[in-house]
Amino acid sequence: MSTAPHDGAREGAREGARDGAHDAPDDTAKLMEAGGHLLLRLTALLRTARTYDVSNQAFQRQMQEFVAALRAIHEDEDEAALAVVADYFYLNGVRIKAHATLLGAYHSLMAEFERRQVGGLRFLPGVDEAEIERFFQIFQAAEDPAIAEHLGDTLVEAAITNIVVVPVAELEVDDVTRDLADQPKQQTERSRAKKVFWRAVLGTKKIVLRARATGRPDLRQAKRLVQPIVDSIMKHEYSIVGLTALKEHDEYTYAHCVNVAILSIGMGQQLGLSRQALADLGVAGLLHDLGKMSVPGDVLRKPGALSGEEWAMMRRHPIEGALMVSRMPGLSVVMLDSMRACFEHHMNYNRTGYPEVDLEWGQATMSRIVAMADCFDAITAHRAYAKRAQTPFEALQILLGPNRVNFDPAVLWALVKSVGLYPAGTVLQTASGHVVLVTSPNPKDGLRPHCRVLVRPDGSAPAEDAPELWDPMPDGDRAVRVLLPEEYRGKTSDLLAA
Ligand SMILES: [Fe+2]
Ligand SMILES: [Fe+2]
After folding, report:
1. Which sign, positive or negative, has the C-alpha torsion 421, 257, 191, 184?
2. Which residue numbers delimit the HD-GYP domain (predicted)?
3. How far apart are the CA of 295 and the centre of ligand 1, in A?
C-alpha cells in the first residue's frame, strides 16, 4: 500500500540527510531542542486526546501549545518530520537526545507509534488546527490494528494533506539520519533492555492508574511486563539491572516498582530460584507498594518529617496493598506471594519495621528479597529534603554496614552479587588513570563492571556521540577510588539513559 506521500517522505528524508543544509552545529542544536519540545507537546496532546473529546477545552489548550511548537519549527524548516528508528527519535534527521527530563515522554510516544505501526509523522507548514483535530481523532482510533493498517489511506480520505504518516516498514536508519557516523547500533543488548525497561515503567503506570479506579491490580498485565525481564536475566543480560540506576525522571514513582522487580529477579537468580519462581518474584516486586495508593499524595510527597497521624497512614500501606491483591478473583501462587510481599516488605530480618508482628512471624523468602531490593532502590533515590541522593556505592556501604542486621545475610549477599561492588551509576577512577561511569554489573567479576569512559588519562573526554564503552572493564585495570558527586561534577544521568 505504498502511496505517493510515503515515498515522498522517504525521499524527502534522504534528501535532507544529504543536502547539508543543516550542517551548522547551531542548526542541529536548535533542532535537537525543538525536537525535545515537540515530543513533550505531542505526548501531552495524545494523553489528553485519550480522555477528552477534541472539542474539549483541555484538548484545545494542549493543541495550541502543540501548534506553537510546530510553528516555531516551520519558521526555519520546510517541514517538521518526526521519525523513530532503532529506538531513537529524529526531527528532520537530527537525533533527539533522551535527556532525563524527556525520558517518560520519549518512551511513551515510542510505544504509541509502535502500537500503530507508525515510523514517522510529517507536519507540513500548511497544517491548521482543524486538520490537527481530525488527525488526532483518527490517530486515536488507530489503536485498533484494523484501522492502523490503513491509516495513511484513511487520512487521505479525511482530506488531511498536511500531516503525513510514514509506516514503520518504510523507514531505515539511512533514511532519517543526516550524519551517517551518528547511526546508533541496531538492537544491541542495551537497546533491547531499554525497550523492556520503559515498556515495564509505562505498563506499571497503567496498572496503578487502573487499580486506582477498580480497587485491584491486573495481575495478568503485571506478569506480561515481568516476563521479558526474567528472560533477559536468565540469558545473563544485565544491562537492564544497570537501568535501575536511572532516578532523575518524571516517571520515577513507577520506575521504582520496576526497579524493585528487576533487582529482586537479579537476586533471585543468584539464589538459584527457578524461572517460574523468578516470574512470581518479579510480579511481587512490581506490586509491592500498591498500598501507597491509599496514602494521600501530599503525605507521600511531603518533604521533611511526617506528623504522628501521617506516619500512621504511611505505615498502613503494606496492609492496604495486601488487601488490594486479595481482591483479585481466584487464587494462585503468584497472588499469595504478591500479598505477602506487600504485607512484609517493610519488615526487617530481626522483626523490627512494620507492620508490627511478634518474633515467631516467619517472613517469606520472597518478601525478604523484595524488602532488600526496595531498600537499595529507595536509598539511592533523591528526596526533596536531602541535599543529594546517596550514590549506589554509598547505599551498599550503608546496607553492608550497621544496617546489615535488618537483612537476611543470604539475601544481602545476593544483592551484592547482582549489582556488583560498584553498582551502576558509580563514578570510578581506575589504575590506568581513567574516570569511568559504571553502566551495568558484571556478575562474573563484581570488581570489573561494564563502564563508559568519562575522562581519559590525558584529560580528554570522548565525544558524547562516540562513546568509549568497556564491556567489561579490561582485565589489567581496576578501580582505585570511588568519586563522590562533589568530586565529579559532570552530569551522569543522561549518559546512563543513553
Ligand atoms: Fe513500601
Ligand atoms: Fe517501595
Report:
1. negative
2. 231-431
3. 11
